[in-house]
Amino acid sequence: MVPGGVFGVAAVNNAVMTKPLVIQAEELDAEPAAWLGERCELVACRYDDSGFGALLARADGLVVRTYTVVDTAMLAAAPRLRVVARAGVGVDNIDLEACWGRGVVVVNTPGANTRAVVEFVVASVLDALRPRLFLHEALDREAWGTVRKDLEAPRQLADCTVGVLGLGRIGSQVARAFGGLDAKVIYHDLREIELRLRFGAEPVGREELFARADIVTVHVDGRKANYHIVDAEAFVRMREDIVFLNTSRGFVVDPVACAEFFVDHPGAMAILDVHDPEPIVETSPLLEIANVHLSPHIAGATRAAKREMSWVVRDVWRVLSGEEPGCPVMPVGD
Questions:
Q1: CA–CA distance from 190 to each of 132, 166, 208, 284 (Å)?
Q2: Using H for helix, E for strand and C for coil, what is the string for the chain?
Q3: Under 8 Å CB-to-CB from 192, ≥6 apart: which residues?
Q4: Has residue 22 got a pLDDT over 80?
Q5: Domain 6-112+304-320 has CATH 3.40.50.720
């Protein structure tokens, strides 16, 4: 090829005009999607759409959220794929080892939904401890007195011990929030955590955490070893009036053991935002238990969090441009 010749110019122009193809398999905030769309050929196509396979065969990038499973079969159908982006934190739906083994970079947005999840946890605990009623009509003196008596809270947060299982990015901020409300906070984690990152929380063993806490909130990662980490033995150790929350992963809680405990302990309460599988199936043992409250995976669902998670597209473009991503996700052990 002669530099500056007609063929050379045409080749350069074609290279400039050809944009990498990125599949948006799940919802993104409009602004980050538009930003990436200016730089790439961005095609919104659900993972279960009939046209997904044809797009995947020529895709350079893939943006997912919670429900697109990126496994060896999908990777085999994507020979051009260079980057998989998780618009969020957890990458349980992505086979990290398979991706890195094929040279596919995985990126995510750690910290994007931390504040949202912390708010959800604190709000849920306050809902559990402080029953409330809003009046829309006048009451006579007797009804007024009855309502006030019925809504008297048996406990207040400042008199409770909060147990945080997993003092990572979210768990540490949960500990900080509850400590700021004068609760006693204890935690269990596999790692030795610097004093300044504990925010006053006391490290304890796993069994001690379940036994001492009035409130247990789970914030562990998706490693295989955390499967059913909250099992029948854990529930046996818990207080009869425990407030138990899981906003991490559905599979970390044994659903049968959980259901049996809360049926047997009507004074306790479970608030479960994550499930295995999702959506919740009709055969789930956790359905129709009065003191088990199931929410549809909304702890991180604020507009601000969604926008921040969607900006994972910046790392998509970095990888496709040959640059180092800001937040690569490496495989971890069990």
A1: 38, 8, 14, 30
A2: CCCCCHHHHHHHHHHHHCCCEEEECCCCCHHHHHHHHCCCEEEECCCCCCCHHHHHCCCCEEEECCCCCECHHHHHCCCCCCEEEECCCCCCCECHHHHHHCCCEEECCCCCCHHHHHHHHHHHHHHHHCCCCCCCCCCCHHHHHHHHHHCCCCCCHHHCEEEEECCCHHHHHHHHHHHHCCCEEEEECCCCCCHHHCCCCEECCHHHHHHHCCEEEECCCCCHHHCCCECHHHHHHCCCCCEEEECCCHHHECHHHHHHHHHHCCCCEEEECCCCCCCCCCCCCCCCCCCEEECCCCCCCCHHHHHHHHCCHHHHHHHHCCCCCCCECCCCCC
A3: none
A4: yes
A5: yes
> How big is the CA angle at 240 (ends 238 and 244), to the nearest 5 degrees?
55
pLDDT digits (tens, 9 = 90+) for 93-126: 999 999 999 999 999 999 999 999 999 999 999 9
Catalytic residue numbers read 249, 278, 297
Distance of alpha carbon 93 from the chain centroid: 12
Q: What is the pLDDT of residues 221-254, one digit of tens each?
A: 999 999 999 999 999 999 999 999 999 999 999 9
Q: Where in the chain is the domain with CATH 3.40.50.720?
A: 6-112+304-320, 114-294
Bridge partners, residue 292, by sequence: 270
Question: Dihedrals φ, ψ of 17, to 5°?
Answer: -75, -25
pLDDT by residue (tens digit) across 171-199? Answer: 999 999 999 999 999 999 999 999 999 99
CA 164 to CA 230: how far, in whole Å? 13
Assigned token pair, 172: 């540490």
The answer regarding whether domain 114-294 maps to CATH 3.40.50.720 reads: yes
The reported pTM is 0.89
Whose CA is closest to 315, among 61, 107, 110?
A: 107
